[in-house]
Amino acid sequence: MERSPLANEHPGTGGTPHPIGSLGVVLVGAGNGTRLGAGVPKAFVEIGGRTLLEHALRAVTALPHAGHIAVVVPADRAAEALELLDAALPDDCTWSTAVVPGGRERHESVRFGLDALPDSVTTVLVHDAARPFASPELFDRVAAEVLRTGSAVVPALPVADTLKRVGADGIVRETVDRSALVAVQTPQGFPRELLAAAHATAQLQDGDPARQEAPPTDDAEVVQRAGGTVRTVVGEQRAHKLTTPEDRAILGALLAALDGAADGAHAAHAAGAAGAR
């Protein structure tokens, strides 16, 4: 198995320690999920008997190195999030964790999570708990590219559907060229200093009445508005985001497929071991 280009001073669960700078993950789960209509914040919606927050934590702690996790949730869910962390993390987990109350907007919640990470963290991954099945390999791929380039990095997929620009009356105005368009996912990765400086700039702009920009929708946009460069790596279909009730069914089917693949791999391994005896 190829060794991860990342490393840390602590070993990850089940992994081999290898030397790198410190990794921090801001796991964002402070959204209220209005469009989903589930009656609870999206991070606390269950798929397959576990909350999205628990699924996302399992992906992060499956990385072959350890680090620091700041989980950002609504203030009134902080105690519940702490209980979920205790239940979800294995006893031998070497990741340090913190639960942080979220802000009014997503970028404010990320800033609070970033501030909660130890000063030793040099590389930060920001991930939406609403993408519960993003693989550890995707986290690793993003972080490796951050370390290689010193830039912000986002996972992206080509846009498959034909895109139309539609007027308020529902009439199609034009077909949009999709060749230069991608769908961007999380985790998004950043050198810690770059992301912190970009969020500090965004905070100053929030207080400027002369600026009428809409709030940024992701951290890559925060960095771009501050003048930073954002690069892409290949994303993955399993990093699907829960937004609508239909997405809940998609994620349920995805979990069943992932569980089936894991069961098949375990059976093949057991058969191979038995044959070797």
From TrEMBL:
Positions bearing the site annotation: Positions MEP for the nucleophilic attack: 178, 241
EC number per UniProt: 2.7.7.60
Catalytic activity: 2-C-methyl-D-erythritol 4-phosphate + CTP + H(+) = 4-CDP-2-C-methyl-D-erythritol + diphosphate
Site feature location: Transition state stabilizer: 35, 42
Keywords in alphabetical order: Isoprene biosynthesis, Nucleotidyltransferase, Transferase
Matches recorded under Gene3D superfamilies: Spore Coat Polysaccharide Biosynthesis Protein SpsA, Chain A
UniProt pathway: Isoprenoid biosynthesis; isopentenyl diphosphate biosynthesis via DXP pathway; isopentenyl diphosphate from 1-deoxy-D-xylulose 5-phosphate: step 2/6
Record InterPro entries: IspD, IspD/TarI, IspD/TarI_cytidylyltransf_bact, ISPD_synthase_CS, Nucleotide-diphossugar_trans
A Pfam match: IspD
Region (Disordered): 1-20, 203-223
Keyword GTP-binding on entry: no
Domain of life of the source: Bacteria
Single Gene Ontology MF annotation: nucleotidyltransferase activity
Top EC class, one word: transferase
Stated role: Catalyzes the formation of 4-diphosphocytidyl-2-C-methyl-D-erythritol from CTP and 2-C-methyl-D-erythritol 4-phosphate (MEP).
Family: Belongs to the IspD/TarI cytidylyltransferase family. IspD subfamily.
PANTHER family hit by this protein: 2-C-METHYL-D-ERYTHRITOL 4-PHOSPHATE CYTIDYLYLTRANSFERASE, CHLOROPLASTIC
Name used for this protein in its record: 2-C-methyl-D-erythritol 4-phosphate cytidylyltransferase
Taxonomic lineage from the root: Bacteria, Bacillati, Actinomycetota, Actinomycetes, Micrococcales
